[in-house]
Design a protein that fits this description.
It is a single chain. By secondary structure, the chain is of the alpha+beta class. It folds into two domains: about 80 residues; about 180 residues, Thrombin, subunit H (Beta Barrel). It has a seven-stranded antiparallel sheet with strand order 5-4-1-2-3-7-6.
Length: about 325
């Protein structure tokens, strides 16, 4: 009985030992498999990290290269655009300059054509081509003593006339061709030559002096003024003689056959070039066609001195 129990215990112990051995073997096997799996996972993870790094480097390089190429292309396009704008601006400026030059040349040619037309009309005994321009600078002078004529010789409002027209006057007014009336001031005169300069506060169209030394006997001229109060009358004639001696015993007069009547005094004697060559002054009573004008060179010298002194006084 005792022997049977002993054998039973041995079998139990052996069974337990075998079970433990089997269990240990299973655990050892499982642990080995887990280690192998972890090792593979670690290898795969390292490979994945390495691949990701390589992919990142490739992508970074590709993006950088793409960015460089894109920047380069943008720079090229930008430069092309700037060059186009610059070239386009140059072409526009060139075209604008060309248009301006064409306009200038056109204006010059039109001016030359107008001058040629004036010369043709004047040579064909027709002064109408210049009268419309000249008469704008002629003024009618009214004072409390009488009437006379004058001509604007500076667009700042300086007017020349005969001194006897304004001598002793306390009121001087001028009437322009476009019917504007201005109060005038006597700023200087030469009573020996009978020249006076007036000033109005207005900008008026002016005439320029010509060289009376170039005037020829027989040259055709026109006289503008206000004879007998008939404002802005034009008469035509020729120069009969030059350097005539006048009442002041000076050889400073042009003799013309242009009718000179009361009211004409102080008006301009004008040549075909629209230049003042004389200042209408007097006629010899009882004779027709004997009018006299103060030569422009004498008048201009007196006028320049008077205006210069006036401007100097104004500055002081």
């Amino acid at each position: 009985m005792v022997n049977l129990n002993l054998n039973s215990n041995k079998v139990l112990i052996i069974s337990i030992v075998l079970l433990l051995v089997a269990t240990g073997s299973l655990i050892f096997y499982y642990n080995n498999k887990v280690d192998e799996l972890n090792s593979k996972i670690l290898i795969l993870n390292n490979e994945m990290v390495s691949n990701l790094k390589e992919l990142k480097e490739v992508l970074t390089n590709d993006i950088s290269s793409l960015n460089d190429n894109l920047t380069y292309e943008i720079d090229i396009v930008d430069n092309d655009l700037r060059n186009f704008k610059t070239q386009n601006k140059k072409e526009i400026n060139t075209l604008s300059d060309l248009i301006d030059e064409i306009e200038k040349q056109t204006e010059i040619q039109l001016g030359e054509l107008k001058d040629e037309l004036k010369d043709i009309k004047v040579k064909s005994k027709d002064f109408t081509a210049i009268i419309n321009d000249v008469i704008q600078s002629v003024v009618s002078i009214g004072t409390n003593k009488g009437l006379g004529s004058g001509v604007v010789i500076d667009d700042r409002g300086f007017i020349v006339t005969n001194y006897h027209v304004v001598n002793g006057a306390s009121i001087i007014r001028i009437l322009t061709y476009d019917e504007n009336v201005y109060d005038a001031t006597l700023i200087g005169f030469n009573d020996v030559v009978d020249v006076a300069v007036l000033k109005v506060d207005a900008s008026l169209p002016d005439l320029r002096f010509g060289d009376s030394d170039d005037v020829l006997v027989g040259e055709r001229v026109i006289a503008l003024g206000n004879p007998a109060g008939l404002s802005f009358t034009v008469t035509e004639g020729i120069v009969s003689a030059v350097h005539r001696t006048g009442p002041n015993n000076q050889e400073i007069y042009l003799q013309t056959d242009v009718p000179i009547n009361p009211g004409n005094s102080g008006g301009p004697l004008v040549n075909i070039e629209s230049k003042i060559i004389g200042l209408n002054n007097f006629k010899i009573g009882g004779f027709e066609g004997l009018g006299f004008a103060i030569e422009s060179n004498t008048v201009e010298g007196i006028v320049d001195d008077i205006i210069a002194q006036y401007l100097q006084t104004q500055q002081e």
